[in-house]
Design goal:
Helix content: 55-70%
Oligomer: single chain
Low-confidence stretches: 51-55
Number of helices: 12
Structural class: mainly alpha
Strand content: under 5%
């Protein structure tokens, strides 16, 4: 593995890195504000995805990603949770899972959310909170965020407690070298279940689309940040927010700790229901206790492709194992 940090680079490399970052920043600004969807070619490509493309364009904002990667690169270099290479097979495979997740979002999950919305409009409109119509937009947004975050907490809890759901979610927990892309190491079936739970609360409240998209950008970037290898617990703010430290405990390989800290953005639900880990200074090793899991361990394209495919198939094999013998 390449043991490299930004601080260890020679001066010429640091200057090159800074210039490359500036170039990426300019490109990201152009992509963020240029009316690309007005170009005929782009419009033709995006036409089949029109029903949810605004959401996906927001979530995959180049500018937001550039800022995120800058913060993570600094954090993993200056205050890492564990000493590990910035460039590793684990990072590469998680990046592959990111591409898979992005494709699933655009080609499948977005359409699934539309199906959920149509089902909601047909059968569940009684859940719509009409009383918020006269509320101030800020109160509507805060209420919707809290309800949606609780739904994510509850769906996360279920994915740990129900064996059928856990074996798919275990793919996400298998990472032994946490990084910014680990949040996207999600089996499509795990993603499908979580998105179903996540979509319903957003349909219950009447928020303007730009406001919802702005929040989705923030929470998407934030979840990537706290999956990174950063030694940070936010001090008193950790009583309110999920932190890189608290979520690392959730990914712990120590038996029992994976059944703690289920929060997505806020830690208040874990504190309310007694599933919060108390020690804010613990940074354990991560992963699952299953020797049969197909971990990646070299940069070979063939090996990484095989590992990704075997990890995709892993839950179906694990379903044949009795629940009591699948150790978390």
């Amino acid at each position: 593995m390449l043991q490299m940090t930004i601080r260890g680079l020679p001066n010429w490399a640091k200057i090159s890195f800074a210039l490359a970052w500036c170039a990426c920043f300019v490109v990201a600004l152009l992509l963020a504000f240029a009316p690309l969807d007005q170009l005929s070619l782009i419009a033709w490509i995006l036409a089949p995805l029109e029903h949810h493309i605004k959401l996906e364009r927001a979530v995959y904002s180049p500018l937001a990603y550039l800022i995120l990667f800058t913060l993570v690169a600094w954090g993993e270099t200056m205050i890492p949770s564990r000493r590990q290479p910035l460039w590793s097979p684990s990072l590469v495979l998680d990046a592959c899972w990111y591409v898979t997740s992005m494709m699933a979002q655009v080609l499948f999950i977005g359409a699934w959310v539309v199906i959920v919305k149509e089902f909601y409009d047909q059968y569940l409109t009684f859940l719509t909170v009409t009383a918020v119509s006269d509320w101030h937009p800020a109160w509507k947004l805060i209420t919707a965020i809290l309800v949606a975050d609780f739904a994510k907490w509850f769906s996360h809890y279920l994915r740990h407690k129900v064996h059928f759901l856990w074996v798919f979610h275990a793919v996400h927990h298998s990472q032994q070298h946490m990084n910014v892309f680990t949040v996207n190491r999600n089996h499509p079936i795990d993603l499908l279940f979580s998105r179903t739970f996540n979509a319903l609360p957003l349909l219950m409240f009447q928020n303007a689309v730009p406001i919802i998209l702005g929040w989705l950008i923030a929470e998407t970037m934030y979840s990537k940040f706290y999956h990174a290898n950063i030694r940070l617990n936010f001090g008193p703010l950790g009583w309110i927010f999920v932190t890189p430290q608290s979520h690392r405990v959730h990914h712990s390989s120590v038996p029992g700790q994976q059944d703690l800290n289920f929060g997505f953005t806020f830690s208040i639900w874990d504190r309310m229901f007694g599933t919060q880990h108390d020690d804010p200074n613990e940074y354990p090793e991560t992963g699952i206790d299953d020797q049969s899991f197909p971990h990646e361990d070299n940069f070979s394209v063939r090996h990484l492709a095989r590992s990704w495919l075997e990890q995709m198939v892993y839950p179906f094999k694990a379903l044949r194992t009795p629940p009591q013998s699948v150790d978390k």
